Amino acid sequence: MKLSRRFFLRAASGATLSLPVLESLLPRAAWGQAPTKGFAFFMRQANGCAQATVDGEPERFWPRATGALTSAQLSGPDADRALSELSAYADKLNVVKGINYPFGNNHGGGGAQCLTAARTYSAPGSDGNAGVFAEGESIDNRIARTLDNGAEPLALYAGPMFGYVNEVLSYRGARNRRGAERNPFNVYSRLMGLTTPNDPKQQQIAQGRTSVNDLVRTELRALMGMRAMSQGDKQKLQQHLDAVRDLEVKMACTVPTQTASAVGAYQNGVQVDWTDGDVLQKIARLHLDLLAYAFGCGLVHAATLQVGDGLDQTRFVVPTSAGGTTRLGAFHPISHRATCDGCFGDASNPGQMAEYHHQIDRIHARLFKYFLDQLSARGIVDQGVSCWCFDISNKFHDTTNVPYILAGSGNGYLKTGQVVNVGGSAHNRLFNTIINATGVRQASGALVDDFGDASLPKGEVTALKA
């Protein structure tokens, strides 16, 4: 059997199964070599975070001090901060403070700059939110066109699409925004090579009657029978096949087989309520499962997950001071301490709204931790850089001190376990650093130092480098 360099099995039916790296089947000269490619993932949260503001709201997000970051600090003195949810990964984190977007604010401008560090374009008649586009490509696109030979990065979405500023993250180039996939089953089908419309194999897998493993069963038997394969690699392959089947079981139980509509999807005749925070988290976790699989197999090297939009109507369940739980109203008004969209700051108890916002931050932190758990299970947290980011910073639509929370060292390129304050810098230098950590270089072989708008200072954030 002749394996491809990227470790795929392809059946006569056309189904494709990606494999983990099996060192015993590599050329002897490649044994023990570390991967040369990293990956980058960006999970964007809508509506800013509950951090300290000029009108006196207390700090609920950032750790208390810059410098070294430890699990003991996050789970002890900083247990009241949203980032305490990531205490188990303190030694893997770079908490980056002091990022200021250089080209305007609001949901539209912030979203356009979030992964581009580019100037923004406002279409005629736009109001600073709707109709705003970036004038450059996004970091996921820059990484994918190099490491994936120009293939599209994965752009995923979880949550309702209520109005303007829906998909805002991923850009092929100036004013060329990429749509995002909401249905995890469609993502799964793409990763598995099951791309034919209405393919009966897809229906069988979705109903739990067939595994993609079954579709390549003949090829798997031949692979397992190779005398050159070590016992350790056989165990690794079996664990991988079990993980694939676990994913399929999850998909069959929770994901519709048809593409999700703009406001919902159907599975077994039941309409999905995308504004339900529990549904949002379930869909987000399925996306994150698939992304961990894709990164672990080297199928993609860049991806984004947008959670909610600029008018986010998600209704989350959060704990109450009495020890119970309550289902909140829409997230967007809460983020502005308001009773409705367009009623900025009119809440009778803004302190309670701020606490609700803090609890929603914790929900997003737990989603990010869930992804790190999946990467950790595959042993690849430090192979890449994963980022939890925002398109605005707080309740005022500000784009100053916008949080960027990084996890992973990018194959040792980054120093981790620290809180770094960049002092009001634009985020292009942060992106240069992340790009270099994935293994991308300029055509000359030099480090990338010029991502984002040409007017911004070049270089990296040296405090992040190992």
A few lines on this structure:
This protein has about 475 residues and is α/β, with parallel strands linked by helices. It has helices spanning about 70-75, 105-115, 140-145, 185-190, 200-205, 210-215, 215-225, 230-255, 275-295, 330-335, 350-380, 430-435; strands at about 10, 15-20, 40-45, 65-70, 95, 120, 130-135, 155-160, 170-175, 175, 265, 270, 300-305, 315-320, 325, 385-390, 405, 420.
Based on secondary structure, the structural category is alpha/beta
What percent of residues adopt helix (DSSP H or I)?
25-40%
Under CATH at level 1, the class stands as Alpha Beta
**Count of separate DSSP helical elements:** 12
Assess the beta-strand content as a share of residues: 5-15%
Query: What is the mean pLDDT?
Result: 84
Number of strands: 18
Radius of gyration equals 22 Å
Poorly predicted sequence stretches spanning 5 or more consecutive residues: 1-6, 28-35, 250-270
Q: What form results from the Cα inertia axes? A: globular
